[in-house]
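Check out a protein:
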Amino acid sequence: MMHVRVKLFATLRIGREKDKVYEIKDGAKAIDVIDMLNINKDDVKILLINGQDADFYEELKDGDVVSIFPPVGGG
């Protein structure tokens, strides 16, 4: 098992912790965390791992910080 810190932004925070450390299985990928939090993949616009652009299938390591942003609108 390993620990990753997950930071959610904007509408993804609704009904969820905005910043929490989760224990997940070794070899888990970013998509596994997204699924665990019941976030629709289509609702993820920006995914960062340790502040760097990442994709859904990047394998996580113990101590990683995963930041998840929804699409943002504005004018």
Notes: The chain has a mean pLDDT of 95. The CA atoms of residues 56 and 74 lie 26 Å apart. The helical segments are 30-36. Residues 30-36 form the longest helix (7 residues).
